[in-house]
Amino acid sequence: MFSLSEENYLKAIFHLETSYKSGVSTNALAEEMQTKASSVTDMIKRLSDKDLVNYKKYQGVKLSEAGKKAAIEVIRKHRLWEVFLVEKLGFNWDEVHEVAEQLEHIKSEKLTNELDKFLEYPKKDPHGDPIPDANGKFTVGDRILLSALRKGESGICVGVKDSSVEFLQYLDKNGISLGKEIRVLEKEDFDQSMLIKMEKNEIRISHQISTNLFIKTL
Amino acid sequence: MFSLSEENYLKAIFHLETSYKSGVSTNALAEEMQTKASSVTDMIKRLSDKDLVNYKKYQGVKLSEAGKKAAIEVIRKHRLWEVFLVEKLGFNWDEVHEVAEQLEHIKSEKLTNELDKFLEYPKKDPHGDPIPDANGKFTVGDRILLSALRKGESGICVGVKDSSVEFLQYLDKNGISLGKEIRVLEKEDFDQSMLIKMEKNEIRISHQISTNLFIKTL
DNA sequence: TCAATTTTTTAGATTCACCTAAATTATTTT
DNA sequence: AAAATAATTTAGGTGAATCTAAAAAATTGA
């Protein structure tokens, strides 16, 4: 079994690997983990000793197969608990992250799988991210950033890229939520801001916003 | 906030205080925590520095009001999660302890209270132990040991004193469960063993068994 | 290319929660 | 009440996960 800290590092490396295909740098990990580069080097050595990552000095890390499996298991639990909190306990989608960060470390295969069943095998978490199944399989599905849509185009809002409390509360305040249709009414060449329509509301959003919303085109 | 280890010590002291009214000894705590007496002394000092226990060298510990509050909060969470595991996820009562030992340390008042609501404010956990409410209030209710019943007397089985996997599985195997009526058909003076009747079954049980079952007389 | 800068690693400390072995205090027994 | 025994504490050490400061390697750019 892995320590809480090890699991958090594995998860962080997994997430960063999507951006850093050729190896996750020490500094990037330190930034992600809110810690110092020297602490990261220490932990990387431990993970490397356990064959959870492949590491050569000064060359960044990559997850091994075992490391990837462990990371996905933690992510599976995190997302299942998020669904539980929202669907069963009435949490808002901006309140679940912190608690799920704790719940994701509970060690019990039976618990995870029974929870999955209880929730009726959800495919997505409250932020639109895919939930790995018991074998670690999951697919993101084809989605694009809202910012990629041109004037007049539309799609269904299916996920958020940033799931910070601040961003989610901004979306709530402006009536933007997953599953609804978005149409681009106008797009400003100068700053890439958009006027979008969701249900009855017309909302003006900055480029920052449109690059953090995932859309599925119809 | 308290560390995982601190919470476990507080819980252990709370439980032991029922037997050791004049202060919990270092050795008793070491036994309960499956650790060495010297480690216990270390931790007691830390808890004492935080005013969670009252401690004078060589005199055992007692929980302070703050310590009691913290211990009860952990116990509340433990028992609520046990109810969740049995009622919602289909765990058997002998499978819940280990997982609840982990879940009891999750820190989120909202989670605890929403879980309580979701479970419809249960008063007892699957082993018949009372669940403290959000203010830490709970009552054990009047219950006696089955061993205290005399021949011909009867009552409802309302709880187990030992909730080890072994004992619970013994009860399952013999069809003994909470909520059912028990009648003492015979009681052996020599070894205190009993012949009891529960529903249609007549079961011969040792004194060890009858001193670990709580009964409510009618 | 080689000097400056940035990134990463090493060295040495710190805290928590544990350990063993030895010393001290309390309790029992004779 | 002194000696033997038991309980508890102290002293010193360990590993995990962090830190700061300094050294070493890699990268950048003049």
Q: What is the level 1 CATH name of the largest domain in chain A?
A: Mainly Beta
Q: Looking at the structure, what is the overall shape of chain A?
A: globular
Distance between the termini of chain A: 44 Å
Which superfamily, in CATH terms, is the homologous superfamily of the largest domain in chain A? Answer: Ferrous iron transport protein A (FeoA)
CATH topology of the largest domain in chain A: SH3 type barrels
Work out the number of β strands of chain A: 8
User: Helicity level of chain A, as a percent range?
Assistant: 40-55%
Q: What is the ordering of alpha helices and beta strands of chain A?
A: HHHEEHHHEEHEEEHE
Strand order across the largest sheet of chain A:
3-8-4-5-6-7
Largest interface: A-B, 19 and 20 residues
| CATH architecture call of the largest domain in chain A | Roll
Whole-angstrom Rg of chain A? 19 Å
| Most strands sheet of chain A | 6 strands, antiparallel
Give the low-confidence spans of chain A.
none
Number of helices of chain A: 8
Would you tell me the overall average pLDDT of chain A? 97
Assembly state of the chains shown:
homodimer
* Classification by helices and strands of chain A: alpha+beta
- What fraction of residues of chain A sit in β-strands? 15-25%
